[in-house]
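New to this. Explain these tokens.
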Amino acid sequence: QAEAMAGEAGLLELPFTHDAQLTRCMRLRFQSLQQKNLRPQDGEKLLQPNEQVYRVDFIRQHNLRFLRWDVRLDGPGKVTLTGTSQHWTPDLTHLMNRQLLEPAGIFWKKAGAKEVECNEADAQEFGERVAELAQVRKVMYFLLAFTEGLEPAQLRASIVFKA
């Protein structure tokens, strides 16, 4: 159904794409600090084992109005999508906590449930923020944290705009 709707005039559905290379770079930063017994920089965000880096490529940047999140979880669990304020080609290996946007989008599915739930007010505000940021970015990076048994392979997510 979502695929058919996205094909309609005036809708733009942009998928979240796993950025394996950036995720790997951020993991190496974490390992490097551990091996050298160094502390992270003040305020540095280190990638946790349950976090992955995803990106959204804006094929269109202007006059986008946030419509909805399309998040599908193939199993029970929770995913937290946090946007970053990094511009263009970021070196996320030195990501600072202050570069993480508020609010985050939190989506979950209870065992046996068909529907994915979310905190709608935060998800709405987050979506509107992404639409604003799209005007100055061709690409936006997100940290996705998978918890309560959810695995990255069980997620399909996109953001839908009225274009």
